[in-house]
């Protein structure tokens, strides 16, 4: 029985966790990102048997993708695997450049935006220095920076979980090699005002490049009014990152890109390769996905619908989520985070748990409606609601 059938026939109809497959959960360890940071992530410790997870809501994956046309394009491209994908990379770069209103020289591809975050960190922090970024935020580039010997200057988010741009501008010093802004932000799901961010990027980039991570941009109502990509065409030293992992539903296919000035792309690509890490299958898939406007807008509207559903149900239970502009939602929980995580995983539900602002939080990704119904049922049982 596949997961969907199991959901329909099993849990929801029979109404019990009794039949849910237990994941062998062995506990959780706290991962502290930096001394003084408001956030610690709880990492589950167990043999990760994904096939036993009934609702996989822990990694902000898109449950609908990749689109059938992408699957077909990938299947047809497998036999081309004896060749490097440079031609397809050039084609994809052309398509992205046209979409973003820049030149191909402004684009660098990578196997996911993680690769581009890491490569940027490698180039900017190989001799140390500091990165200025919000706290809490998406930790990938801060972790790499710190691993390379650099420092993270953490700037607390404002009371409504936006980036505190004036404080971030103030934090930039002579040793700052990069500023990182995740917008919308992960794990808070919150947004920073686009007008204020544009002004910030323009001013701060005169001193130091600003990396704007727009992994969740496409889930916004009017993404074209929120992106910083227009600044690149004006010659501003911003590095805007996008991914095919979220709205395109291609997380496991590993493809993403950055848009930056020609000079900035050159300073990165003279040290690390751009298209060498890419599979021809993923390239063909991304090319197909860029033409899938209907599929992409369906993903977006289903995401919005699911977000409203979870918001309604969770607030009815008395919880207060942070208003989300993304494909996930986070809210403080009343019980111990480790215990909560253990019980959720044992009930077959993957979620992310954080210790943040001195309390435990649950972050849940927008799966399908069925998966979220299962999440909510399990959540109620685990929290005795
Ligand atoms: C804000 C943000 N940036 C980047 C990534 C990395 O995505 P990928 O490497 O799959 O493109 C993620 C993944 O969850 C994310 O949340």
Q: Would you mind describing this structure in some detail?
A:
With 385 residues, the protein is of the alpha/beta class. The chain has 2 domains: 3-60 and 297-383, Alpha-Beta Complex (Aspartate Aminotransferase, domain 1); 68-293, Aspartate Aminotransferase, domain 2, CATH 3.40.640. It has 14 helices and 14 strands. The strands form 3 sheets. A 7-stranded mixed sheet has the order 4-10-9-8-7-5-6, sandwiched between helices. Strand 13 (352-356) and strand 14 form a beta hairpin. Helix 2 packs antiparallel against helix 11 (280-289) and helix 3 (86-100) runs parallel beside helix 11. The longest helix is centred in the last third of the chain and has 24 residues, at 293-316. The model is unreliable at 1-19 (pLDDT under 50). It binds pyridoxal-5'-phosphate. Residues 60, 112-114, 138, 182, 186, 213, 215, 243, 245, 251, 256 line the site of pyridoxal-5'-phosphate.
């Amino acid at each position: 029985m596949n997961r969907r059938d199991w959901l329909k026939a099993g849990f929801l109809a029979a109404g019990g966790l009794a039949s849910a497959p237990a994941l062998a959960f062995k506990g959780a360890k706290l991962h502290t990102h930096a001394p003084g940071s408001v956030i610690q992530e709880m990492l589950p410790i167990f043999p990760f048997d994904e096939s036993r997870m009934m609702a996989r809501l822990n990694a902000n994956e898109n449950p609908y993708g990749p689109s059938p046309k992408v699957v077909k394009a990938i299947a047809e491209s497998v036999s081309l695997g004896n060749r490097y994908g440079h031609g397809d990379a050039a084609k994809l770069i052309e398509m992205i450049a046209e979409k973003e209103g820049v030149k191909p020289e402004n684009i660098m591809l990578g196997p996911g935006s993680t690769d581009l975050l890491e490569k940027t960190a490698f180039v900017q922090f190989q001799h140390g220095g500091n990165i200025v970024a919000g706290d809490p935020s998406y930790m990938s580039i801060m972790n790499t920076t710190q691993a390379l010997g650099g420092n993270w200057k953490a700037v607390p988010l404002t009371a409504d979980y936006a980036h505190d741009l004036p404080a971030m501008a103030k934090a930039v010093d002579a040793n700052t090699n990069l500023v990182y802004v995740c917008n919308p932000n992960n794990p808070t799901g919150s947004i920073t005002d686009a007008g204020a961010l544009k002004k910030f990027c323009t001013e701060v980039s005169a001193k130091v490049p600003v990396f704007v991570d727009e992994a969740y941009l496409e889930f916004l109502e009017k993404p074209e009014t929120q992106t910083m990509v227009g600044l690149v065409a004006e010659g501003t030293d911003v590095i805007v990152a996008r991914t095919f992992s979220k709205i395109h539903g291609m997380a496991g296919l590993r493809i993403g890109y950055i848009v930056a000035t020609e000079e900035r792309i050159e300073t990165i690509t003279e040290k690390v390769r751009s298209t060498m890490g890419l599979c021809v299958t993923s390239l063909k898939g991304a090319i197909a996905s860029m033409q899938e406007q209907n599929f992409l807008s369906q993903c977006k509207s289903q995401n919005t619908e699911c977000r409203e559903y979870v918001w309604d149900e969770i607030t009815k239970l008395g919880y207060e989520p942070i208003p989300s502009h993304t494909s996930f939602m986070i809210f403080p929980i009343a019980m111990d985070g480790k215990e909560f995580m253990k019980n959720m995983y044992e009930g077959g539900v993957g979620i992310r748990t954080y210790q943040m602002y001195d309390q435990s939080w649950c972050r849940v990704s927008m799966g399908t409606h069925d998966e979220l119904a299962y999440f909510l049922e399990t959540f109620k049982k685990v929290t005795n609601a």
